[in-house]
Amino acid sequence: MTTQLVWFKRDLRAHDNAALMNAARLGPVLCLYIIEPSYWCNSDSSQRQFSFLRECLRDLYLHLQALNAKLYLVTGEVVDVLERLHHLQPLAALHSHMETGNVLTFERDKAVARWCAKHQIHWHEYQQQGVVRRLASRDSWSRRWEEFMTTSQCFVDQISALELPWPIESWPDWHAWNRPSDQPPQRQTGGRTVALATLRDFLDERCATYRGGISSPLSAPSACSRISPYLSWGCLSMREVVQATAEKLSMLPPDSRASKGLQGFLSRLHWHCHFIQKLESEPEIEWRNMHRGYDGLREPDWNEANFKALIEARTGWPLVDACVVMLRETGWLNFRMRAMLVSVAAYPLWLHWKPFGDWLATQFVDYEPGIHWSQMQMQSGTTGINTTRVYNPIKQAQDHDPHGRFVRRWLPVLRKVPDSWLFEPWKMPPDVQAHCGVIIGKDWPLPPVELESATRNAKNVLHARRAQPEVKSEKSAIVERHGSRLRPQTKARKAVAAQDVKQGSFEF
Ligand SMILES: Cc1cc2nc3c(=O)[nH]c(=O)nc-3n(C[C@H](O)[C@H](O)[C@H](O)COP(=O)(O)OP(=O)(O)OC[C@H]3O[C@@H](n4cnc5c(N)ncnc54)[C@H](O)[C@@H]3O)c2cc1C
């Protein structure tokens, strides 16, 4: 008997799964998820993601069972598993979605392609979202995104299922890989069932607070959709989310708060693919500057003490430390707070984006390499095409947590600090410190650098590099490769866009 092998990757759903649907049409199917030790030992993975994955797989198992199929979990490197499987049960074809992952999965996919070619096994790779493989030009990208999102979703109702030709394996022990324990108590739960409930709840209720609610870390946890981990792990397909949103939008009065919220949400679904496309087109941005003119800028100055202070929530800047604690406890932060953390790392603390990005990746349950590395570079000023965005953590606290509720929630030690000192506790006079029981230097750290001067120096160094003729001249090639073409191309708009590029304020 020949086998259609469905290799589940970051597409942990039976619904709208082109790999599953097409394999099932061709013959008996074996459904497999491969747990790769090399992936889980890499610097950007963590136990919180591994636990989330397990929940996703449990749910997928039940959904496949309802279709008469069984999901098998195998631990090993992919080519080794394929080799063993093919030896015991010849494969007719391999089916999976295209993946825009980290360098490890990129190299692994190339090895799989070589293995398939050697054994003359056809590898059917299906488009998973709006990301286009071997994209020749960005000009047609938006049109192709729209086309993909408006095509029909894939359904499968009948699967002729095959069994794994060796005994069922148990879930691997995380600690056998010598990786740190990491179980945030308030992380989102994995799996399509929760994903669908989260999406429904957002579309029916919470979207009304999306506009205006997504920037403050206080309101964001409920105002944002919270579907990011489900998109990253593929419990939901991007197409079904876009279509469900469009359907809901068509039922709402255009000026309603809910409609405005969903319009903003829909544009972020575009961004999702837009950012991943950058990594798809240029995998190197995971480890080197998108604009090579910024090479050598921060690398020589690595400051381990600053890095440790940041990741251990000891910078002394309350909003920064509160965000790190929230991330540690939940595995999620809203966009603005993520951007602020990177800005603090990149400017006053002058840290290179790669090591900090690796650490942040382990903290995000929704880690999506394409979005993550593009954003890390954008917020650190190394893309060469974006405005320098520097977030002052004290101003951000005043704007988005004016009464200090967020800071006090995540940093109990500061609960008794009066409002007037809360965002700059190091300025508290000794008698106030004694009164509220927070002695600076003992109960609360002094910031590692003086915020204003360190930020100013960092911006000056970056802008001096940006002003160099060879750095300036590279910019248009990067815009050509990665820049969004979403703006309407009227003559006036073109002139504005050209000006934006000149000033370095091109949106993406
Ligand atoms: C430094 C940095 C790193 C990031 N890393 C990731 C990551 O690893 N994975 C990830 O999913 N998002 C990442 N983001 C983008 C964004 O912060 C999250 O997508 C968002 O906070 C997820 O919450 P949500 O699903 O409630 O978002 P919503 O606001 O409800 O947005 C819906 C969806 O749109 C997409 N989206 C939203 N904002 C953006 C954006 N700015 N760029 C691209 N797509 C977006 C996401 O898929 C998100 O799930 C990062 C942002 C920054 C600044």
Describe the structure.
With 508 residues, the protein is mostly helical. It has three domains: 3-128, HUPs (Rossmann fold), CATH 3.40.50; 192-281, Serine Threonine Protein Phosphatase 5, Tetratricopeptide repeat, CATH 1.25.40; 286-503, Orthogonal Bundle (DNA Cyclobutane Dipyrimidine Photolyase, subunit A, domain 3). 51% of the residues lie in helices and 6% in strands. It contains 24 helices and five strands. It has a five-stranded parallel beta sheet with strand order 3-2-1-4-5, sandwiched between helices. Strand 4 (91-97), helix 5 and strand 5 form a beta-alpha-beta unit. The protein is globular. 43% of the residues are buried. Mean pLDDT is 94; it is low at 488-508. The structure holds flavin-adenine dinucleotide.
List the keywords:
3 domains, Serine Threonine Protein Phosphatase 5, Tetratricopeptide repeat, 5-stranded parallel sheet, mainly alpha, single chain, Rossmann fold
